[in-house]
Design a protein that fits this description.
1 helix, single chain, mainly beta, about 130 residues, seven-stranded mixed β-sheet
């Protein structure tokens, strides 16, 4: 059974860093795309960064470009989101999701995922 499990959220001061991870298990066949999404209280879920596992193609939302980096460890079936220079407005529940058959830009821009993790809280506050 396909599962995504996030971990690595937490509380950090503005300007700090976190690296949540998303462990994926149970998928077979063509390598999918994995995306990180976030949802702040009272706001819609939005795409943060998406990664095509077959060739490493990435997409980043404008709000995180230059601060966040998505990466993978194939041996561990894990995708990471390195978040630097965090701001209070980055506070949200962060989710990872898996999707096949669409571009990483569409996946992130349209918040599209076939399978979702349970989410991990990231709080940026002094």
């Amino acid at each position: 059974q396909l599962q995504l499990v996030e971990s690595g959220g937490g509380l950090v001061q503005p300007g700090g860093s976190l690296r949540p991870s998303c462990e994926v298990s149970g998928f077979t066949g063509i390598r999918p795309s994995i995306g990180w999404f976030r949802q702040a209280p009272g706001k819609d879920r939005e795409g943060v960064s998406c990664l095509r596992l077959s060739d490493g193609l990435t997409y980043y939302a404008d709000s995180v470009k230059g601060r966040f980096t998505i990466s993978r460890d194939n041996a561990k079936n894990t995708v990471y989101l390195q978040m630097n220079s965090l701001k209070p407005e980055d506070t949200a529940v962060y989710y990872c999701a898996l999707r096949r058959g669409i571009s990483v830009q569409t996946m992130c821009a349209m918040t599209l995922g076939d399978y979702w993790g349970q989410g991990t809280q990231v709080t940026v506050s002094s």
